[in-house]
Design goal:
With about 550 residues, the chain is of the alpha/beta class. The chain is about 50% helix and about 10% strand. It has 20 helices and 14 strands. Strand 6 and strand 7 form a beta hairpin. It starts with a helix and ends with a helix.
């Protein structure tokens, strides 16, 4: 009768049907979307720190881009402001760095440059002012250094013919010490930002400024460089980037040029690339094998093309941007602690978790290690990335805590609250879905295409289809007969999309072909994503008396599923 509540109660009162396949007793794994051509869920903004939430909301609305792109850019900006100055203690022997590697995948003409310009603006503004202050402070010091250098040269000339070698060396050494003290008075020039660098050049630059650097690029150039674009050998070079994410040091000595050395590297990367960059990337299997791709947070969200509004109708609010920029400047201005008076070696401050946060994080770590990494777990298909997921959670939670404390004017090093661990876990699960999507894009070979094809065929076939029936309806180059099809189905079964149910053997004759049972979550997802069809203005409306009721029935079914 069109009564939604009565309809719901009636449905809930119905007895469940018996199933010869025991579907209700079978525990299906949670699906990943890598073969379903579906975009990962959007990141909820409501649990982010207010200053970050308002900034992401305002910027995504004014530029008409997915808010997920802005959130990932913000995490990279927070990393640029803090990485290398502090780290987070999970427990006694686990300290996690604050470096974030962010990679946003977006097609051409989707305002990547406009977003990049906004995200990088506070770092650029801070760097410009900091360089000017440092150069002004160094002017007097430079004059003293030049005088000391000239004086040392004069002393060497005068004492050149001195027969008392020991006395000569002592005097030269004294002047050299005075020169070194003058050089130590120089303020380091904070050239953090770059958008293109080789590994060797990056290491050299990082050694000049507390072993820190930031790569922000609106195109995929840095990824191509890592893949060997600028190497004479044309081989991938991932070592520095892997070490810098983990806070390790690096020293090199190469024939024909001066070696470089840096202790406890801290690198931030925020790269926006087109899908073709990853699809056509050289040596991507080597890069994945060496663990660099496992260090990235990825975002590939559906664009707003076809759903945009008149830009003049958008009411812009610049206050959130100004407040966000102020927080980033304050975090960048945080003075690091040093191990030595010469201010050459940073002593990292330590962030600690509150008691409740540590219990929550430990429980989650146990869940990941003992459940989620199993073949049917949510990380079973991305084990290398999943191995670093808990570390990413600590990094994200610390950055959310730092910017919130900065916005409120509180101590940055108060214990990290439970809410930030919970929010970081929520974000990490969403980023795991993005990772599956991007990995599917990068490593989409012939077998991947065949898996997608077979899964689509299964979804199109009626319930109860057998392997032999599917084989009769499968015609694709690259799938050679029922045996090859069976192998593809077994791979899909390992990943939780379906299962093969053996039928009872008859007393005589051949054993029946297994029945293919599709994971119910796929069908439920299709129901939930059924588009709302607008009622058309038609002269035949009088024949469609039940249209409204059918629409309500569909909505009720969606809610139940």
């Amino acid at each position: 009768g069109g009564d939604d509540e009565a309809f719901r109660e009636r449905l809930l009162s119905l007895a469940s049907s018996d199933s010869s396949l025991d579907s209700l007793d079978y525990l299906w794994p949670e699906l990943d979307p890598s073969l379903l051509n579906e975009f990962p869920p959007e990141i909820p903004l409501e649990n982010l720190p207010p200053v970050m939430r308002r900034y992401c909301d305002e910027l995504s609305k004014s530029l008409q881009i997915p808010s997920d792109w802005v959130v990932l850019g913000c995490l990279a900006t927070l990393s640029a402001s803090s990485a290398g100055k502090a780290h987070t203690k999970a427990w006694d022997d686990w300290f996690e760095e604050l470096c974030i590697y962010a990679l946003t995948i977006a097609p051409p003409s989707e305002l990547k440059s406009a977003l990049f310009k906004e995200i990088v603006a506070p770092i650029k503004g801070w760097q410009r002012d900091a360089i000017e202050r440092a150069e002004q402070a160094n002017r007097t010091v430079k004059d003293e250094i030049e005088l000391r250098q000239e004086h040392l040269g004069d002393v060497k000339k005068k004492l050149k013919n001195n027969k008392d070698v020991d006395s000569t060396l002592q005097q030269i050494e004294g002047h050299r010490l005075l020169l070194e003290k003058a050089e130590q008075k120089q303020e380091p020039i904070p050239r953090l930002l770059r958008d293109d660098a080789t590994a060797q050049g990056l290491l050299k630059d990082m050694a000049k400024y507390f072993n820190r650097a930031v790569i922000f690029a609106p195109e995929g150039g840095p990824i191509k460089n890592i893949a060997g674009r600028l190497n004479n050998s044309q081989q991938a070079d991932t070592e520095l980037h892997c070490r810098a994410w983990s806070g390790e040091g690096m020293s090199e000595s190469r024939s024909g040029r001066e070696g470089n050395e840096a202790e406890s590297l801290a690198l931030t990367m925020n790269i926006m690339a087109q899908p073709s960059v990853l699809e056509n990337l050289k040596h991507k299997y080597q890069i994945e094998g060496e663990g660099l791709f496992a260090r990235f947070l990825y975002c590939q969200q559906q664009t707003l093309a076809g759903r945009k509004v008149d830009p003049l109708s958008i009411e812009r609010d610049y206050a959130p941007r100004a407040r966000w920029d102020a927080c980033i400047h304050e975090l960048l201005n945080e003075e690091p602690e040093f191990h030595d008076e010469e201010r050459t070696r940073i002593k990292k401050r330590v962030h600690e978790l509150s008691g409740a946060s540590q219990i929550r994080f430990r429980d989650f770590w146990l869940q990941v290690e003992n459940t989620e990494k199993l073949p049917h777990g949510r990380l079973g298909t991305i084990l290398t990335w999943g191995g670093k997921m808990c570390g990413q959670i600590l990094r994200i939670a610390t950055h959310l805590h730092r910017v919130d404390q900065c916005d409120k004017g509180h101590s940055l090093y108060a214990p990290i609250e439970l809410k930030w661990i919970d929010t970081a876990i929520e974000l990490a699960w969403i980023y795991s879905e993005h990772t599956k999507y991007v990995y599917g894009l990068m490593f989409r070979d012939g077998r991947q295409a065949n898996l997608i094809y077979v899964l689509d065929r299964v979804r199109a076939m009626p319930v109860g289809t057998t392997v032999s029936e599917l084989n009769e309806n499968t015609k694709k180059k690259g799938i050679d007969g029922v045996k090859d099809l069976q192998n593809l189905l077994e791979l899909l079964a390992e990943r939780g999309y379906l299962r093969l149910v053996e039928q009872p053997s008859p007393p005589v004759g051949r054993r029946p072909s297994p029945i293919i049972e599709l994971n119910p979550a796929i069908s439920i997802q299709e129901i939930q994503e059924t588009p709302n069809q607008e009622k058309k203005d038609s002269s035949l409306d009088f024949l469609e008396e039940d249209c409204d009721y059918e629409e309500e029935e569909r909505k009720a079914l969606q809610e139940l599923t």
